[in-house]
Design goal:
Layout: H1 15-62, H2 66-71, E1 73-77, E2 83-86, E3 94-102, E4 108-111, E5 126-133, E6 139-146, H3 152-162, E7 166-172, E8 177-183, E9 202-205, E10 214-218, E11 223-227, E12 234-236, E13 240-245, E14 248-252, E15 256-264, H4 267-291, H5 301-312, H6 315-319, E16 323-325, E17 332-334, H7 336-345, H8 347-440
Antiparallel strand pairs: 1-15, 2-14, 3-11, 3-15, 4-8, 4-10, 5-6, 5-9, 7-8, 11-12, 13-14, 16-17
Helix pairs in contact: 1-4, 1-8, 4-5, 5-8, 7-8
């Protein structure tokens, strides 16, 4: 438990004020250290922000794939209601006329008879055999058992749980409930329905007596198109023609004609350069605030070197007129017209410039981020050292204050004692004086 000292008891000395003044003098070095720590903490905070900005632009650059930017292809349709397409870098540049003859559709077949109620049941047991043709020569067979007393929905559930090519459902005609069988996906079969020859994708034997036989509601049909003046139709079981040409997929939407053009797609180049400018400007703006007149890092080589180095690395873009450089604050903006012109007239030159920018900045940023991290660590070490000194000084100051208060308390006690003695002497002298005066009388 700390000692308790009460000052000013004698009224002779204001020991509390004296001690406070002495402590203020003793605290001056501590105050200076605290101020120095605050400055270092502010510098560390700024360095952390700068490191983050540098790391952001470095990550952005590392994720840029220059080859992809300059090898991407696009497929443009003159009528997107007829067809659309996608291309890859391997698709040749071309323009071709495409006529969509038919769209793909799945076969739909229903029973010719049905049940008057969903709760009605089959009168006998049996095995339903479904045949699904995957092309004109091959098929798969599924056997589904049913029993007397089962409902139409029970049969539907059994069909759907036994295979994935045929989708069964209940079909209501308005008077009765029938079995409807459709292809689960047109992609599973290339065979087309031909009612004239009784050629179907879905066939069934052994239907419950109550259902009769199957009739065709919709024919299976492949999508079909022709290119240019060719008389040879190209077919697909779905509305997407995969690999119509190398890397080219065409999706048809309705019958009709459209012109399809495959060409380079440089649309990502301008946006990439714009994003680069934004990241660059973020770093420059931060550096300006850190190195300006009276700022924390004015004249600090570690930071100012980055600012000058940043601008020098822009030379390829400046020389080609691809950016606008501000002499006022060092920020940049993209000259979109110049970019568009160069990517059309000499894309290889633009590619070389962007490759140089990516490589030079990436290399420099690796060194700069390392330097900032080191500089940040040095400042943090200084803060740790100051914290240790502050702790030591605070402990010494506490001991010093205790000693002062103890000494001044003792001084006050001594003064109080002297005052008491002085008072007694005064009383004695007064008494003696009065006694001597009485004797003379």
């Amino acid at each position: 438990m700390a000692d308790l000292y009460i000052s000013g008891l004698t009224g002779t000395l204001d020991t509390g004020a004296i001690i406070d003044k002495l402590l203020q003098l003793k605290q001056q070095p501590l105050t200076k250290l605290t101020q120095k720590k605050a400055l270092l903490q502010a510098k560390v905070s700024s360095l952390t922000n700068l490191y983050g900005a540098l790391n952001d632009i470095q990550s952005f650059l590392s994720n840029i794939n220059i080859e992809t930017l300059f090898s991407t292809k696009k497929a443009t349709s003159s009528d997107t209601t007829v067809l659309e397409a996608t291309a890859t870098k391997d698709t040749p540049n071309l323009t071709m006329n495409i006529t969509v003859n038919t769209l793909a559709q799945t076969e739909m077949r229903a029973s010719t008879q049905g049940l008057s109620s969903l709760t009605n049941t089959f009168s006998s047991s049996g095995t339903l055999t479904l045949k699904y043709w995957t092309d004109n020569s091959n098929y798969v067979t599924y056997n589904i058992n049913y029993s007397a007393g089962q409902t139409l929905q029970d049969l539907v559930n059994s069909i759907n749980s036994s295979q994935n090519n045929i989708k069964a459902s209940v079909y209501y005609t308005g008077t009765d409930y029938r079995l409807l069988l459709t292809e689960a996906s047109p992609a599973n079969s290339t065979k087309e329905t031909n009612t004239a020859t009784s050629s179907y994708v879905i066939e069934a034997t052994g239907l419950p007596t109550e259902l009769g036989s199957l009739e065709t509601l919709q024919n299976a049909q492949n999508a079909s198109l022709t290119i240019g003046s060719s008389s040879t139709a190209i077919t697909s079981p779905t509305n997407t023609f995969f690999g119509l040409l190398t890397g080219l997929d065409v999706t048809v939407k309705k019958t009709g004609s459209a012109t399809l053009t495959v060409s380079e797609d440089y649309s990502q180049i301008s946006s990439t350069l714009t994003n680069f400018a934004n990241y660059y400007n973020s770093v420059i703006s931060l550096l300006n605030s850190m190195t300006g007149k009276g700022a924390q890092f004015q004249g600090e080589a570690t930071v100012t070197t980055i600012k000058t180095g940043f601008s020098r690395l822009l030379d390829p873009l400046i020389s080609a007129g691809l950016i606008n450089y501000s002499d006022t604050d060092g920020t940049i903006s993209i000259n979109s017209d110049a970019v568009q012109s160069l990517q059309s007239s000499d894309p290889d030159k633009l590619k070389d410039i962007m490759t140089t920018i990516k490589n030079s900045f990436s290399t420099a940023l690796t060194g700069w981020t390392s330097s900032i991290k080191t500089y940040e660590s040095i400042n943090e070490s200084q803060i740790t050292s100051i914290d240790q000194k502050i702790t030591s000084m605070q402990e010494s100051l506490t001991k010093y204050e205790d000693r002062l208060r103890k000494e001044y308390a003792q001084l006050e006690a001594f003064i109080s004692q002297m005052n008491q003695i002085s008072s007694k002497l005064e009383d004695f002298i007064v008494t003696l004086s009065e006694m001597m005066k009485g004797g003379r009388d």
